[in-house]
Design goal:
The complex is a heterodimer of chains A (about 300) and B (about 325).
Chain A (H helix, E strand, L loop, with lengths): L1 H10 L8 H11 L1 H18 L36 H37 L1 H16 L2 H13 L5 H32 L2 H9 L3 H37 L11 H5 L5 H6 L5 H25 L7
Chain B lengths: L1 H28 L4 H4 L5 H10 L6 H13 L5 E2 L4 E2 H36 L4 H15 L2 H15 L17 H39 L2 H8 L4 H14 L2 H7 L1 H6 L2 H6 L5 H11 L2 H29 L1 H6 L1
Antiparallel strand pairs in B: 1-2
Helix pairs in contact in B: 1-4, 1-15, 5-6, 5-8, 5-15, 6-8, 7-8, 8-10, 9-10, 11-15
Classes of the chains: A mainly alpha (about 300), B mainly alpha (about 325).
Chain lengths: ~300, ~325
């Protein structure tokens, strides 16, 4: 009894002058679910980016003598109709799907963040214009909008290796309005706060107000909505690629790998072709959402969903 | 309130106007068109059709013609069906509607029930289990879920038909027909319900947890009311209030069809027709449908605000 009390006393550190970010980190580390999400996400990233180096099939590519093999010791997830190793392709596809998700997120956060800040800070006519554009974009159904853009951009005859940047761009065009609205309302409510009135009274320049006082306060919001939007972007990319409008072969993405399910024989008899990429999307998005949720809880306990 | 509604109605005009511009010019940028896609047409016939459909006019002129017809309630003429677009939408919207309605009712029923139980038993095993299911539902690509469901229930188990709306070659009437359609509906409804349930369950759970902490709940218990009455009459009612807004947002989904799910299940709804029209570049139909959804979206936003104002007077004052 006594000894435990003593160790407790010893381990108890003096309350550190803990910074905001340290508190956030502590709260985050207490959340089991989000740690699982983070761990899984790291696993998937390693699987996609490091995994191919351990695969003997990366440079082999097409192998006509070895087509449509079911899973075996050599090919853990079998081979496809061109004799390519499905597991290796799954890793390479993961690189593209993750990059597209991340890239689309970065673009939407930059566009949405900048326009949202401008809107909320300068108000007036600029705000009106930006918000009306956002309104219009949000009025249009997302999927048809993506289809249209994909059809238009396909006409540009972009080399396939640059195609993923086009997909990122498309997803961010659909993604920014929601974010801009969120940022704008946050800026508007921050502007009412006393510290912003103080900056007014002190006669600070606009740039100083923006970068020193407003931006730091919306960074947490951007991190959380950014993280959560990666999952959405990966889902949208997979849908587009499934319909042949996103990432196109020979580049593999998880979405276009599932396209093999369109052939009746592959769908019924060769589930190893299309089930693993589907599960990969599922597991990736679920981990990203768990992580994003954990971050939200850690960053702003008030936003907590309990 | 009336003034507010009128103001909001006027507010809709520029948004819809902007939407019409964006829709028209985006579609006009899409490569290919219905007439060129037809290999059997001679060059003269093509030129004739171009003239007939006004494709020789500049884009801007064509936009204003389209807009003028739109304002008269004329959505244009579908090239693929050789019918007015309004009629095509009218023909297919109801098969989309029955699936959407069935899944809507199911989703809300399950979400309310599960959300409440989860909130009352917060942090129990059940609650954790539900949380995991909710996350799973939000992370599944719709087309993949559809494929897996077909594979399991239609191909492997053979319990239910894999796609379509009626059995091929059948000409059932009366109850037989209803039964046949219902059987074909089960899987698409299941998929739509699974996809929609996540967010809603989570929403009800959060709301319920908020309400449970309120003082009036304690008062109700202190009065000696039965727990059932406390939860359902005092708690649920208040938790449902903000949900009115969400209910209005279901409007576009109810009439707009589910493009992916209908495509996967070969369900002859407006979403599948959209995909088909897209592949043959039937622009009048595509533009008409997209505009239709845009109008529905704007209306549902308006409806949400009005209903919320009626249900909760505190909101009204602030505006």
């Amino acid at each position: 009894m006594e000894s435990s009390a003593v160790t407790l006393e010893k381990n108890k550190k003096l309350p550190r002058s803990s910074s905001l970010w340290r508190q956030i980190a502590r709260r985050f580390l207490q959340n089991k679910m989000s740690l699982i999400g983070l761990a899984f996400l790291i696993f998937i990233i390693l699987f996609s980016f490091i995994g191919p180096f351990f695969s003997p099939y990366v440079n082999l590519g097409v192998d006509p003598t070895n087509i449509n093999q079911s899973p075996s010791a050599q090919h853990w997830l079998g081979t496809d109709k061109l004799g390519r190793d499905v597991l290796t392709r799954l890793m390479l596809a993961g690189r593209i799907s993750l990059l597209v998700g991340l890239g689309a997120m970065v673009m939407s956060v930059v566009i949405g963040g900048v326009l949202g800040i401008i809107s909320g800070f300068y108000r007036g006519i600029v705000d009106q214009i930006i918000m009306r554009i956002a309104d219009v974009l949000m009025t249009l159904p997302g999927l048809p909008l993506l289809f249209i853009m994909a059809a238009i951009l396909s006409e540009w005859k972009v080399p396939t290796e640059y195609r993923i940047y086009i997909v990122m761009l498309m997803l961010s065009i659909v993604g920014w309005p929601g974010l801009a609205r969120l940022v704008r309302s946050q800026i508007l409510s921050l502007s009412e706060r006393q510290f912003m009135q103080a900056t007014e009274a002190l006669g600070l320049r606009d740039t100083r107000k923006l970068f020193k006082h407003l931006l730091p306060n919306i960074i947490p919001l951007l991190i959380v909505s950014g993280t959560l939007s990666v999952g959405g972007a990966i889902l949208s990319e997979s849908t587009l690629s499934f319909f042949g409008l996103g990432v196109v072969p020979p580049d593999a993405s998880w979405g276009n790998m599932i396209t093999s399910a369109n052939s009746l024989l592959d769908f019924q008899k060769r589930p190893w072709l299309w089930v693993p990429p589907g599960l990969a999307i599922f597991l990736t998005v679920i981990s990203i959402n768990l992580l994003g949720d954990g971050l939200r809880d850690a960053i702003d306990p008030n936003m907590r969903r309990r | 309130m009336k003034g507010y509604v009128v103001k909001r109605l006027f507010y809709m005009i520029p948004t819809l106007f902007g939407a019409s511009i964006l829709i028209f010019f985006l579609y006009s940028l899409v490569p290919g068109n219905f007439i060129d896609a037809d290999q059997n047409l001679t060059a003269e016939r093509k030129a004739e059709l171009y003239e007939l459909h006004g494709y020789n006019e500049p884009v801007v002129i064509r936009y204003f013609i389209w807009l003028k017809n739109l304002l008269k309630g004329d959505l244009g003429y579908s090239l693929q069906f050789q019918l007015p677009v309004g009629e095509v939408i009218g023909n297919y919207i109801w098969s989309s509607f029955i699936v959407a309605l069935a899944s809507l009712i199911l989703t809300w029923f399950i979400a309310i029930l599960v959300g409440i139980v989860s909130a009352i038993r917060q942090y129990s095993i059940w609650d954790t289990f539900i949380t995991i299911i909710v996350f799973a539902a939000m992370a599944t690509p719709s087309f993949f879920l559809g494929l897996v469901i077909i594979k399991i229930f239609a191909v492997d188990l053979g319990w239910l038909p894999a796609g379509g709306m009626i059995s091929t070659g059948s000409n059932f009437t009366g109850w037989e027909y209803v039964k046949d359609v219902a059987e074909h509906m089960i899987l698409p409804v299941l998929v739509l319900t699974m996809l929609g349930i996540g967010g809603l369950t989570r929403y009800f759970r959060t709301n319920m947890l908020e309400v449970i902490k309120q003082d009036f709940m304690r008062t109700a218990r202190a009065k000696g009311l039965k727990e059932r009455v406390v939860i359902f009459k005092h708690g649920l009612r208040n938790a449902l209030l903000p949900a009115i807004t969400l209910f209005s947002f279901e409007l576009p989904a109810l009439f707009g069809g589910a493009i992916i799910t209908e495509q996967i299940f070969n369900w002859p709804g407006i979403g599948a027709i959209y995909m088909q029209a897209f592949s043959v570049r039937d622009y009048p139909l595509l533009m008409g449908f997209t505009m239709f959804i845009a109008v529905l979206t704007v209306l549902s936003n308006l409806l949400a605000d009005i209903l919320y104002g009626i249900a909760d007077p505190r909101v009204r004052v602030k505006k």
